[in-house]
Amino acid sequence: MTVRIGLIGAGGMGRAHVDRITNELSGGRIVAVADINLDGAKAVAEPLGAKAYGSGPELIADPDVDAVLIATFGKVHCPDVIAAIEAGKYVLCEKPLATTGEDCRKIMEAEQKAGKQLVTVGFMRRFDKGYNEMRKVLTDGDLGYATLLHCRHRNPSVPENYTTRNMIDDTAIHEIDISRFLLGEEITSVRVDTPRSTSKKFAHLTDPLVLVATTESGVRIDDEVNVNIQFGYSIECELVMEGGTTSLSDQEHARVRDQWGERHVICHSHVDRFHDAFNAEFQGWIRAVERDEHAGSTAWDGYAATVVVDAGIESLENGGKEVQVDMIDKPAFYA
Ligand code: ISE
């Protein structure tokens, strides 16, 4: 069976997903593309022989669409995710699931009403080999329990419409999710520090930030979010346990050693850095949809990350005070 996928959002991320589904993965085909810019939707759809729509609901209602992929801006995710659930279609929604905890709760309520887990959130780092090996070092138990998690999330630059709030809800949300994945527990409080800003940024940004979070068992997470670092897209992570550490190795596949020293290429975008993780995530999702099964992170994971984001933004807006994460009890449906 070929899973007939409808894409909502024909921007850069959507097009990267079309490319992987069409040229790199098997079992899925893009049959429809929707975008509020209908010409943008047509530009992506026509070469594929797919249909083009000017809105998400039209695409979701199309009986030829088996499953929905959402790659629009976070702010507009919620109604389309709920419409897909109500249509009984599996939906892979790029992060964030929604931009408020309340919208995520509405999504979880719709899913529980449908009686079936249909929502996957695009937290692709969960499919990265490095993070999975780090997690295994912890769960194997030989090095004891975790005490600290040091993260660095560096982007070469960001566009002018990217805001300081986006440093938390669009960028640090990846470390928020991967910390939960690595440590297997929830984050209970957050504070956001604002060190000296770089001059290499748009005037409205406060960059870098350091998000400091604490988990249920007391593990301390620090995340340097630094989005105008110039030199490349650089993701670092070190997990400290009682008897040793484990860290993400760098992104290189090969090194060069010569008269100028030793080096490797540094990529410039998340699409390249997490290429293999995205592919593993999407291939797993397509195979699961074929079998009528859920795959990947759940709507609960989307909710849990968003309420930590909410606390981080509250801290940022209140001079870096420590904010407790306001989280509902996990419904048994997501156990
Ligand atoms: C972007 O949306 C991503 O998801 C990238 O992984 C992140 O590095 C970047 O800061 C975000 O804007």
From TrEMBL:
The keyword NAD applies. Residues 131-245 form the GFO/IDH/MocA-like oxidoreductase domain. It is an enzyme of class 1 (oxidoreductase). Gene3D superfamilies: Dihydrodipicolinate Reductase, domain 2, NAD(P)-binding Rossmann-like Domain. It catalyses: myo-inositol + NAD(+) = scyllo-inosose + NADH + H(+). Involved in the oxidation of myo-inositol (MI) to 2-keto-myo-inositol (2KMI or 2-inosose). Belongs to the Gfo/Idh/MocA family. This is Inositol 2-dehydrogenase. The gene is iolG_2.
